[in-house]
Structures are given as structure tokens and as C-alpha cells.
Write a structure and sequence with these properties.
This protein has 406 residues and is of the alpha+beta class. The protein has three domains: 117 residues, Gcn5-related N-acetyltransferase (GNAT) (Aminopeptidase, 3-Layer(aba) Sandwich), CATH 3.40.630; 130 residues, Gcn5-related N-acetyltransferase (GNAT) (Aminopeptidase); 98 residues, SCP2 sterol-binding domain (Nonspecific Lipid-transfer Protein, Chain A). It is built from 13 helices and 19 strands. It has an eight-stranded mixed β-sheet with strand order 1-2-3-4-5-6-15-7, with helices on both faces. Helix 1 crosses helix 2. The radius of gyration is 23 Å and the shape is globular. The chain starts with a strand and ends in a 14-residue tail after the last helix. The relative contact order is 0.12. The protein binds coenzyme A (COA). The site of coenzyme A has 17 residues, from strand 5 and helix 3.
């Protein structure tokens, strides 16, 4: 519990909810502030929200202004290879805005996440608010758009299309995990994530093979004369034509002229779609949308070691020796590679590179090319150190699937 003391009495108390009454008032505030349908919001928080994998009572956090709940938020914890604590439902009651309630609540929650050994934080936020807490935009939105009329695909081959059901979760989960390994920042899902969000997954369609096994799935959503597909997955590329055909048939049934597939361009199905007349959009927002911040920089760098070592193994540095020092607002970290093994220690040595934490986050997630960040710096880096940084910070396409966003 943190207290900001006023002249006579503690005026602002920041803490986790402790009583049923505090939880009820926090839910009431968040539902009022965030939901068009208040009762639906309340119901979600009390059921699916409370049952989200690893959700704990202390993940609802409040700001009490002179004893009254004036601000609230919910933490969502997940793994994105790193331990991530996400912010959601951030709310200040209308009467108490612009007096620093949200700021104090966010700072206090970041300190809580640090105490709990989280590495990074993530959120999907309003414009120009979260950068002041160190959050950097790292997650773009991608859409591949096809005109239904352009697709001449023939029949659906050997697959049958039917509505998905909870019994398909294990198969869908397996398909998702198979193809998701390369998607940077993607939330590592368990079956419980799908069970918890089944209400949103309910429209899912599955393609089954001759033995009745699930070979592919897609999650459609009709919006006006367009059909959105918020996720696709298939056991192999052989299913792609049938998967696209199934989407096309459903779009025709609903008189949708276009299909908008939401997935990163690196996804195998997005690459398949480039065989057709299509448009591939990347929507970049600055200081809004999917943003990330370090909660504990040292621990984050430490946790990157296995991934960096595997990058190194495939590079010219597999057996060499190289060292760099990353100098940030949180201090300096020395990264040494020797014969394929990497060690991270606090402190400075040679090859110093000064970076803001925002720049480092952009490099770590692969949102920017490391080269582009390095080029903007005056620095004393050897050729080897520079090549090393380009090896361990490859360009990637960080992405969180729409149904995993919180
Ligand atoms: C956004 C919200 C939580 C801000 O709460 P608040 O308690 O009034 O914010 P604070 O007083 O702590 O403001 C902190 C800083 O953010 C700025 N700020 C406040 N509201 C802002 C907004 N809507 N957009 C951008 N900046 C904002 C303040 O000017 C202040 O700036 P400073 O650092 O220059 O002093 C509140 O307006 C709210 O509940 N909005 C509706 C729900 C919402 O949009 N939540 C965010 C979901 S991602």
C-alpha cells in the first residue's frame, strides 16, 4: 500500500482491493467508465475477467481519494516468452480527473509488478497518455484485404466446414502454437485462455479432414459489407486453399464484398494470400495502441540470454568473442559473448552505446531495425560489436492476436 500524504491526512491511498465491497465499487467504476453496456461489463469482470488464467484478487488495484474509490485498473498477466504484466480498464472517476490519480495508480502498479519480478508491461491504450510512464509503441496492426469477387477457388477439397465447439479447443490450441513460435511478443496461450474467452471464440469455424480431425480454423466477424477474420490457423499449407474457400463462402453468404484477415505479414497464411489480388496494410500508431515498457530492465536482458545465444549460434559469432555496454537511464549493462555463451552483468565496459529505454524496447521487440537505431547514434562501437547487436536484435514483426488483447 502506498500513501501520498496531504497536509493533514493521507489523501490518496494506492493499493490492491481487499474487501468484497472495494471490489464491487472498483468494478462499478471500471464498467461505468469503459462500457457502453454497463451490466455486460460488470458481468464480464465478475465471470470471465475473474477467471482469466492466473488472475488474482490483488490484480484489481485502486486509488482511494479521502477513502473514496476514485481510480481503478486491472492487471492481466501472461507470458510473451518474458513475464508480462499488462494494464487494462484504467479508470478515474469523472469527479477526480486531472489531479494525478491515474498517474499515481500506474506508478504504484508498475512498482507492484517489479516486486513480483515481472520483466515487461504491455497495454493497448488511448493516444498520448502512456508514453509518460515509459511505454513505447511496439505492436502494429496488420490486415490483408481480399475482394471476394476476385477469388476463383473451386471446391473445398477433402475438408468439411462446421461450427467450432469447446471440444475443438485442444486441436485449435495445438495448431496455434505450431505456427506462433516466430511471432515476437505473441501471448503464450494455454487451452484455458480459449475456454475463458469462449464467448468471443464462439463464431469460430473449423475444417475437418476425412477422419474428422480439425485441420484448420478461422474466426469470422461480419461488419457491414466486410467480413473480418480475426484469426486463422491450419495444420499445414495444404489446407490453405480450402481455408480461404471456406472464408469466401461465408463472406458470400453474408453478402460481404471484402474479407479482412488480421495477422502479421510473416504468417504463412498471409504469405499465401499474396498469390491473390490483395492489399496488405500495416497500421502504425505512435504513442497509442499496443505499447510496452520495461518493468525490470536487468532481469529482462538476463532473460533474453537463451534467445540471444540461439541467434548467435546461427551467426559468424558462434565461436568468437565480443562485448558491448548498453547505457540507459536505468544504468549500464555489459553484454559479453564468448564461444556462443552470453553473460549480462550490470556495469560498464567497452563498446558503449547510449540508448533510451524506448529505443532499447524498439530493438528488443524487433519493432525497428537495430541498424536504424544504431545509425542515429554517435558512438564508439567496433565493427564486431555493431554486427553483434544486429545479430541479437533482428528485425521482427511483434504482434498480439486480436483475441489475446486485453
Ligand atoms: C485517461 C484517464 C484514466 C486519466 O485519468 P486522470 O486521473 O485524470 O489522469 P492524471 O490526472 O493522472 O493525468 C496524468 C497525465 O496525463 C494527462 N492526461 C489526463 N487525461 C488524459 C487523456 N485522456 N489523454 C491524454 N493525456 C491525459 C494529464 O494532463 C497529466 O499530464 P502531465 O503528465 O503532463 O501532468 C481518465 O481520463 C479516464 O478514466 N478516462 C476514460 C477511460 C480511459 O480512456 N482509460 C484509458 C484506457 S486505455
Amino acid at each position: 500500500m502506498t500513501t501520498r500524504t496531504g497536509q493533514h491526512a493521507p489523501e490518496l491511498v494506492l493499493k490492491a482491493v481487499e474487501s468484497k465491497d472495494e471490489l464491487r465499487v472498483a468494478h462499478d467504476l471500471m464498467a461505468k467508465v469503459h462500457c457502453k453496456d454497463y451490466f455486460e461489463g460488470l458481468r464480464w469482470m465478475e465471470t470471465a475477467g475473474a477467471g482469466y488464467p492466473n488472475f488474482r484478487p490483488e490484480h484489481t488495484r485502486i486509488a482511494l481519494w479521502k477513502g473514496e474509490v476514485a481510480g481503478a485498473l486491472r492487471i492481466t498477466t501472461d507470458t510473451i516468452r518474458l513475464k508480462m504484466g499488462g494494464f487494462g480498464w484504467i479508470s478515474t472517476s469523472g469527479r477526480h480527473r486531472h489531479k494525478g490519480i491515474a498517474r499515481e495508480l500506474i506508478v504504484d502498479t508498475l512498482a507492484y509488478l517489479q516486486r513480483q519480478n515481472y520483466h515487461v508491461s504491455m497495454l493497448f491504450g488511448i493516444p498520448n497518455f502512456y508514453h509518460r510512464f515509459g511505454f513505447a509503441t511496439t505492436l502494429a496492426d496488420y490486415v490483408s484485404v481480399l475482394q471476394v469477387i476476385d477469388l476463383a477457388l473451386g471446391s473445398n477439397g477433402d475438408y468439411r466446414v462446421r461450427a467450432g465447439k469447446p471440444g475443438d479447443i485442444a486441436a485449435m490450441q495445438k495448431i496455434h502454437n505450431q505456427s506462433d513460435g516466430d511471432v515476437a511478443c505473441s501471448i503464450v496461450r494455454s487451452g484455458a485462455h480459449l475456454t475463458n474467452r469462449w464467448e468471443q471464440w464462439r463464431p469460430v469455424q473449423v475444417l475437418t479432414d476425412a477422419k474428422g480431425k480439425v485441420a484448420a480454423y478461422y474466426l469470422p466477424r461480419i461488419d457491414g459489407n466486410e467480413m473480418y477474420v480475426d484469426e486463422v490457423g491450419a495444420v499445414s499449407r495444404r489446407c490453405f486453399r480450402s481455408l480461404l474457400h471456406a472464408c469466401q463462402q461465408q463472406a458470400i453468404e453474408h453478402h460481404a464484398a471484402r474479407i479482412r484477415f488480421r495477422m502479421p505479414p510473416t504468417h504463412a497464411f498471409a504469405r499465401y494470400l499474396t498469390r491473390f489480388r490483395s492489399a496488405h496494410e500495416t497500421r502504425i500508431c505512435v504513442n497509442e495502441g499496443g505499447m510496452m515498457a520495461f518493468v525490470n530492465l536487468g532481469e529482462t536482458l538476463e532473460s533474453m540470454v537463451p534467445e540471444w545465444e540461439s541467434c548467435l549460434a546461427q551467426s559468424a559469432f558462434a565461436r568468437g568473442r565480443v562485448e558491448v555496454t548498453l547505457v540507459t537511464e536505468d544504468g549500464a549493462y555489459r553484454i559479453r559473448a564468448h564461444r556462443g555463451a552470453i553473460a549480462v552483468t550490470p556495469g560498464a565496459a567497452t563498446n558503449k552505446l547510449s540508448l533510451t529505454k524506448v529505443e532499447l524496447m524498439h530493438m528488443l521487440t524487433g519493432y525497428y531495425h537495430a541498424e536504424d537505431v544504431l545509425d542515429s547514434k554517435r558512438r564508439m562501437l567496433s565493427e564486431d560489436a555493431r554486427a553483434f547487436l544486429n545479430t541479437v536484435f533482428p528485425k521482427r514483426t511483434p504482434f498480439v492476436w486480436p483475441l489475446d488483447q486485453f
